[in-house]
Amino acid sequence: MKEKIGFISLGCPKNQVDSELMIAKLQAAGYEMIDTPFGADVVIINTCGFIEAAKQEAIDNILEMGQYKEDGDVGKILVIGCMAERYRDEILKEMPEVDAVAGLGVNGDIVAFVEQALAGETKSVYPEKTTLPLSGERVLTTPEHWAYLKISDGCSNCCAYCAIPQIRGPFRSRPIESVVSEAEALAAQGVKELIVIAQDTTRYGLDLYGELKLPALLKELVKIDGIHWIRLLYCYPDRITDELLETIRDNPKILRYIDLPLQHASGKVLKAMHRSGDKESLLSLIRKIREYLPDAVLRTTFITGFPGETDEDFDELSEFIDEAAFERLGCFAYSREEGTPAYDFPDQVDPALAAHRGEVLMDQQYRIFAEKQALLIGKHVECVVEDYDGFSDSYGGRTWMDAPEIDSSIRFVSDRDLNVGDFVTVRINDTDEYDLIGETV
How far is 266 from 298, CA to CA, in rounded Å? Predict the structure, then answer.
């Protein structure tokens, strides 16, 4: 067995899949992967660099590992991922505790990078970012019964506030055969829920096939034995087609759960963001989704305090949220990011005001959410078991309406023994803040 490696993965699910691919390569090369950085010969930090909060999290992790290194608890510190790609040698200049830095293109040759860093032969390397592998063997870091399925990487939307196209490069899809082959392998490992992810899921296939291919891909995924739920995240609103909605409607394995990041509802603000649409067009889209899928659960995210956002724009967004009545919603204050067009926009909104507006919207959404949760009392809902609590003799899980790690949970009792990953029908008896309470039927 070679040296011990501790791996810290930060940021979004797409980054987590990248980490799983690299961990598999390192294991195959004979390195011992350990769950804690203590005692590691090498600590690899796969960073996020999307917004200021993500950068700060990465910096905090680097500084913490630097202290462990000073105390003799870890060996070398290697920094990779989005922040490394974005800031490159600035990291080495500003953070002397870091031994080597590599951009996204190194992911496919992570073993060579580690070997060179251990030998002191490299301090930084930045291969072409589009060489980042989109497929390969993975070591899952999620529970055994669910996994992310990344169908593309990069982004070509170029929203004014976002650094992702600069960091990860243009949008590029995996072939359908590659995605289906990976999904079959995941099912063979015991995965029952596939969570389909990309920077822009609904754009899938446009670059490879000249047309939108998400419906075609989904029709292949539903054929896989062992897969019980298929969940869609990051569905760009411009490409929610009738064909996609029909595919979801006609295939019970595909959950009526659509993650639809809208970012705003004011046409003026959306145009400044380099996005299309306005309040009326977005309401029209939501009506169409609910016509096709009357029981749909819609999740969205909004940005408050984008440059030029007036009180009137904010009021329009607030009215939109009331009218759309989303089942799930997140709100984030605008983060001013270097290198993005919006960084130099006039009329920057005071960060405290942006944060306050976000809090107002989340209070508003909590009222909507609580009303929708209350309507579930007495209903029977399919759930997946996530854990068992011996103290209360109850199970924890998620309904089909909840994505792992971002949405609500449910706690329920059962008159029979259950295992993690089992799917059960639960009668909802009550609500508790954000979560549900019930019993199996």
Answer: 19
Q: Which domains does the chain have, with CATH numbers?
A: 4-131 (3.40.50.12160), 146-375 (3.80.30.20), 380-440 (2.40.50.140)
Q: Tell me the CB-side half-sphere exposure of residue 137, using CA atoms within 13 A.
A: 8
Please choose, from the candidates 164, 158, 78, the residue with its C-alpha nearest in 3D space to the C-alpha of residue 125: 78
Residue type, 24: A
299 has which bridge partners? 259, 328
> Residue holding tokens 């399919």?
382
For the stretch 37-59, pLDDT in tens is: 999 999 999 999 878 888 899 99
Is the Cβ–Cβ distance between 212 and 203 less than 8 Å?
A: yes
Q: pLDDT tens across 248-296, in order?
A: 999 999 999 999 999 999 999 999 999 999 999 999 999 999 999 999 9
Characterize 17-39 residue by residue with b for buried, 16 or more Cβ atoms within 10 angstroms of its Cβ, and e for exposed: bbbbbbbbbbeeeebeeeeebee
User: Which pair of tokens denotes residue 114?
Assistant: 């580690």
Q: What is the pLDDT of residues 78-92, one digit of tens each?
A: 999 999 999 988 999
Q: Is 393:345 a contact under the CB 8 Å cutoff?
A: no
